[in-house]
Specification:
Elements (H helix, E strand, L loop, with lengths): L1 E2 L7 E8 L3 E15 L6 E15 L10 E2 L8 H11 L21 H4 L13 H16 L1
Parallel strand pairs: 4-5
Antiparallel strand pairs: 1-3, 2-3, 3-4
Pfam families: YceD
Organism: Sphaerisporangium rubeum
InterPro entries: YceD
Length: 143
């Protein structure tokens, strides 16, 4: 329903600190989001800011299996950044908190339909009698 489009510019603010075991990276990222409202399906765009922190170890002996390692003088921020963004994404994004959504009967956008938008609900058990009532009214008018 919502995500980060490929190729968008991401604003990063990063702090690198040398520690005994490696390099501690602390940062924030501002990311533009694009998607659709989970209630009315209108397109929406927003920006989120996420924080992240990761320790990149100098050697594999100091690190556990899941820990990040420095590759010479390089470090890969993508997995840490991606995890932070994915965890911050809204599960059900909405265009506004009071978005009424779509009509469950016809799919019309309720914000555009107005307060008088209704559907006559006929109980299937009584549907055959509905036809009799119409025929009776027609006969009464003729006679």
């Amino acid at each position: 329903m919502i995500g980060v489009l490929e190729g968008v510019d991401v604003e990063l603010e990063i702090r690198l600190e040398a520690v005994m075991e490696g390099v501690l990276v602390t940062g924030t990222a501002r990311v533009p989001l694009s998607g659709e409202c989970s209630r009315c399906l209108d397109p929406l765009a927003s920006v989120i800011e996420v924080g992240f922190q990761e320790l990149y170890f100098y050697s594999a002996e100091d690190a556990a299996e899941d820990d990040s390692l420095l590759d010479g003088e390089l470090l890969d921020l993508e997995p840490v950044f991606r995890d932070a963004v994915v965890l911050a994404l809204p599960l059900s994004p909405v265009c506004s908190e009071d978005c009424p959504g779509l009509c469950v009967e016809c799919g019309t956008k309720l914000a555009d339909a107005g307060p008088d938008h209704r559907h006559e609900k006929i109980d299937a058990r009584w549907a055959a009698l509905q036809g009799l009532r119409t025929d009776t009214n027609t006969n009464d008018q003729e006679g």
